[in-house]
């Protein structure tokens, strides 16, 4: 609770004005009950007295109505501003905390994009509900309870004590009523999370779902995920009905006892009709307020438990520190992996590297080849420090001693499936270097062989690429990704299967762009196609987590028993079979 409420501290002024207004707003209800009872009692008096009393009470009610408008406006405006600012603050902090985590954290099935997006949306709203919305009701009810008890004890302390003794029964009745009206399904947010994730994945992969006519299958899977929450809600509803009936019995029994005791006091001349009726009405209002307040207790406890998921993200310390270390202004481009051992956090039983040694010289290009799953792309991930090795070192001026952002500013990455954002081509290229000029963006596009096709588009560089770049072809997306890497002018360029998904013509255009970009840069490329790797200065063959062969294309192809020769022969045979077909 301390952590939760500390998040609204910047808006304490609104908190003070809202709290005072809530207390005043809460005090209005028992005063209203007192006024109504006084009006009812006055009808048993003489006509002149009745007119005078009703006129006075009506005037007071009109004044109270004006005050109600004023204090409710101040209360809800103050808490509304606090709530909106808190929601904004929590979402910003959560999003920043999510982006701060190491890549291995995102590999977990609990941290998929759909689940994190759902938590970002719901958890911030939940914190607002706990801290602001429920606090508003709580403060208002505290004002109501305090005012009611003061009035009741002044009017008749005997009946007040008797009614207070029955309060547990009264309050339990009101609590059950509130909870029954709200629904007894309970908090099934986590149960529905899988269903939400499934729906989000189906929508984001709609093309695949439609292509394979999988709509019915997805609907069935979604329905299956909803069965368990439905069963739980049904069971809780059955128990709720029984509890509600019993509690209502206690509630009306308490009313009966209070009325009977009031008549008993009147018979002994220890109370008047007026004091009994006023005390009874005011205390009933108090019981309602207490019931409403206590009905929130389970929700607040559950809310606190659920809010802990917010702090799980906010307080988590990333395993790959991004803000500690030295800034680096210039990188020579020498990369060395020394006796590296590595396992993916999500697959800790599988060793990817067992003592990998690799040296990449500055300004030279190195191609990494090998069978699928041999760890080629993992080398790029270690260079970018997406992960830290279990043992050994990755040396680019000793990677662990550098600020992560400072290091990554000197590294460009082009992936097999270029990740474009749903914005303009210009903005996508600008992601490579914040603050790049228009001239730099255009120059990068020219070097990437992208300027011609961009200029031919109706809106040019302001063309929207759509979600994940769906408005563009594979070759066009890849060239924009290359332009994004070029605009930062990196000392190190990493190419992860940059041309493998392209047709022959697109590959030729993209390869021309890459050949131009690779000059005077340390380039590490992961590739299968011979056309991509044969011009590399050094080719390294990875197998079983180690380098088994190294050299240039001519040197390695001459070794007829070598792994590289076998890989090239296999690829040529596949190409011949395709041509024959």
Question: Would you kindly provide a written description of the structure presented here, covering whatever features stand out?
Answer:
The protein has helices spanning 2-6, 12-42, 47-100, 103-106, 113-155, 157-165, 167-182, 189-204, 206-211, 215-267, 273-314, 376-383, 404-408, 425-430, 438-447, 451-456, 474-487, 504-518, 530-533, 553-557, 563-580; strands spanning 335-342, 353-360, 365-369, 391-395, 411-414, 492-496, 522-526, 538-543, 546-551. Strand 6, helix 18 (504-518) and strand 7 (522-526) form a beta-alpha-beta unit. By secondary structure, the chain is an alpha/beta fold. The strands form two sheets. A six-stranded mixed beta sheet has the order 5-6-7-3-8-9. A three-stranded antiparallel beta sheet has the order 2-1-4, with no helix packed on it. Helix 2 (12-42) runs antiparallel to helix 11. The mean pLDDT is 80. Helices cover 64% and strands 9% of the residues.
């Amino acid at each position: 609770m301390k952590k939760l409420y500390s998040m609204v501290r910047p808006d304490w002024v609104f908190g003070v004005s809202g709290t005072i207004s809530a207390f005043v707003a809460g005090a209005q209800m028992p005063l209203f009950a007192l006024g109504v009872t006084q009006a009812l009692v006055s009808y048993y008096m003489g006509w002149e007295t009745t007119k005078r009393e009703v006129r006075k009470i009506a005037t007071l009610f009109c004044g109270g109505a004006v005050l109600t408008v004023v204090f409710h406006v101040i209360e809800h405006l103050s808490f509304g501003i606090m709530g909106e600012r808190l929601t904004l603050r929590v979402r910003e902090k959560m999003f920043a905390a999510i982006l701060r985590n190491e890549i291995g954290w995102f590999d977990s099935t609990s941290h998929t994009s759909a689940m994190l997006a759902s938590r970002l949306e719901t958890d911030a709203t939940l914190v607002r509900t706990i801290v602001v919305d429920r606090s508003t009701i709580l403060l208002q009810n505290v004002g109501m309870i305090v005012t009611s008890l003061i009035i009741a004890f002044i009017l008749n302390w005997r009946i007040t004590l008797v009614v207070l003794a029955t309060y547990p029964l009264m309050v339990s009745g009101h609590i059950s009523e509130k909870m029954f009206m709200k629904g007894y399904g309970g908090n099934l947010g986590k149960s529905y999370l899988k269903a939400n994730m499934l729906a989000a994945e189906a929508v984001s992969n709609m093309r695949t779902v439609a292509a394979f006519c999988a709509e019915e299958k997805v609907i069935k899977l979604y329905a299956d995920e909803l069965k368990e929450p439905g069963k739980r809600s049904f069971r809780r509803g059955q128990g709720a009905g029984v509890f509600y009936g019993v509690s209502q019995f206690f509630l009306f029994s308490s009313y009966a006892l209070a009325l009977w005791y009031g008549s008993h006091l009147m018979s002994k001349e220890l109370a008047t009709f007026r004091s009994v009726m006023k005390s009874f009405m005011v205390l009933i209002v108090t019981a309602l307020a207490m019931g409403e307040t206590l009905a929130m207790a389970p929700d607040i406890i559950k809310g606190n438990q659920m809010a802990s998921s917010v702090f799980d993200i906010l307080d988590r310390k990333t395993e790959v520190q991004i803000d500690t270390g030295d800034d680096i202004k210039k990188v020579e481009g020498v990369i060395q992996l020394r006796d590296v051992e590595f396992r993916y956090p999500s697959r800790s039983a599988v060793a990817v590297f067992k003592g990998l040694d690799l040296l990449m010289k500055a300004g030279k290009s190195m191609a990494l080849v090998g069978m699928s799953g041999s760890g080629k792309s993992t080398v790029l991930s270690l260079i970018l420090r997406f992960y830290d090795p279990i043992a050994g070192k990755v040396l680019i001026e000793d990677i662990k001693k550098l600020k992560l952002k400072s290091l990554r500013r000197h590294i460009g990455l082009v992936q097999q499936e270029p990740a474009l954002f749903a914005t303009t081509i210009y903005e996508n290229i600008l992601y490579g270097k914040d603050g790049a000029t228009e001239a730099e963006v255009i120059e990068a596009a020219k070097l990437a062989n992208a300027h011609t096709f961009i200029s031919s588009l109706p809106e040019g560089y302001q063309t929207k690429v759509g979600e994940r770049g769906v408005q563009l072809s594979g070759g066009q997306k890849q060239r924009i990704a290359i332009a994004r890497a070029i605009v930062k002018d990196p000392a190190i360029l990493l190419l992860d299967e940059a041309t493998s998904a392209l047709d022959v013509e697109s590959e030729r255009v993209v390869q021309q762009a890459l050949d131009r970009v690779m000059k005077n840069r340390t380039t590490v490329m992961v590739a299968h196609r011979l056309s991509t790797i044969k011009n590399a200065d050094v080719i390294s063959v990875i197998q079983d987590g180690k380098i088994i062969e190294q050299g240039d294309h001519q040197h390695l192809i001459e070794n007829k028993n070598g792994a590289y020769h076998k890989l090239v022969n296999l690829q040529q045979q596949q190409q011949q079979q395709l041509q024959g077909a």
